[in-house]
Every structure is written in structure tokens, then in C-alpha cells.
Amino acid sequence: MSELTLIERAKAILDILDAYTQDVKIFPRLIVPSGIDREAMKQFAHRAIVRTVYSHIEAMAYLMKQVSLAPELSPEDLFSSAELALLREDEYFLDGNGKAQRRSARISTLNNLRFSFDTFARATKITSRLPVHEHGWQFIKEGNDIRDRITHPKQPSDLFISDEQLGRVLDGHTWFINNLVPCLVEAFHSILPKP
Q: Which CA distances in Å does 94 have to 80, 82, 89, 103, 106?
């Protein structure tokens, strides 16, 4: 994505935001085909929704970091070398021969989300921040635990998602969108050229 312009990066955020938002809206409306166990289908849909929500959140965090790295925003002047490496999702290490190597950084979803909002706000010079003191942040954290549990199950019961748990995941997603969209509007109004 490093070769994309600021406008192309902004458009990518909006296009992916729209696609994932539609996915989350469509899944609960799927019709169960005849001959399929309704509870099995419900659990399948619950797991798919949770994975979709967190794919959406992670995609938005990545794309916000890509905007922060846009050359038009002079990221080298705004961020430390450590922050630049994390914005690029890079990690450095020495191999067995003492040679410096690069690999993809492993950043926890929650820390990455906070970092991406902070660096995006700094790069675009906006006041919006991710309000982690609000109750919606707790839903994001709970949903992240559920996502981790269903993607790395230790026992069959780890794959079960109750209606109440799914409701909290969806409430967290709504909270995320309700904080993301005003941030994007403020940022794009600030950084994109006026027609």
C-alpha cells in the first residue's frame, strides 16, 4: 500500500468499511436451508459474525496506519523510529548469523487498535480519540476474548457463542463504528484537498 496516494488510502478505508458493515448486517438474516440443524447453523453464523467483526476492526486499524504513513503527511517528522516500524507492522531481530532481519510484528488487536487511532489522530491533526473509558470498549475487549476462544479452541464448548455474547460483540462493533466514522470524517475533512 506504500505506493498509494493519500486519497487512494482514504478511499480504501471507506470501501472496506462499507463492505464489512454490509457483511455484519447480512449475516443475521441468512435463511437456514432445509435439512440443516438450526442450532448448528446458528452457531456457525455466530462464529462467522464474530470473525467478521474482528476482521473489520483489524482491517480498519491497518488502513488507519497506512493513512498515517502517507508521504503527504510527513510521517518521519511525526513519529519515532519505533512508531514508524509499528505503523509498518515491522519487527526487527538478529538471526543466528548475527544479521539484522525483518519480520511482521505480532501486535495484539486491542493494543493495535489504540495505537492506530492515536497515530491516525496525530498524523491527521484531529482531536478525535478512541474513548477507551466508555462501556463500549469493554464490549470490544470481551468480543476479542470470544474471537480468540473460537479461533483457538481447547475444547468443543469453546466454539459455543450465546445470543447474549453475540449481542455484546455486535454492541462493541456498533460502538467501534460510532467512534470510527466521526474520526474519519474529521480527518478526511482536514487532510483531503477541497474540490
A: 21, 16, 17, 11, 16
| Nearest residue to 191 (alpha-carbon basis) of 87, 73, 60, 75 | 73
Res 28: pLDDT: 67
The partner residues of 102 in beta bridges, in order of sequence, read 92
What pLDDT, on a 0 to 100 scale, did the predictor assign at position 23?
Answer: 79
Q: Say whether 90 sits in a helix, a strand or coil.
A: strand
- For 55-70, the pLDDT digits (tens) are 999 999 999 999 999 9
* Alpha-carbon gap, residue 50 to 41, rounded angstroms: 14
Q: Kindly provide the b/e burial profile for residues 129-153, where b requires at least 16 CB atoms within 10 angstroms of the residue's own CB.
A: ebeeeeebbebbeebbebbebbeee
Backbone dihedral region for residue 155 (phi beyond 0: left; psi -120 to 50: alpha; all else: beta): beta
Residue 125: CB atoms within 10 Å? 12
- Give percent of the chain above pLDDT 90: 71
Long-range contacts of 78-84 (CB under 8 A, 24+ apart): 78/122, 78/123, 79/119, 79/122, 79/123, 83/119
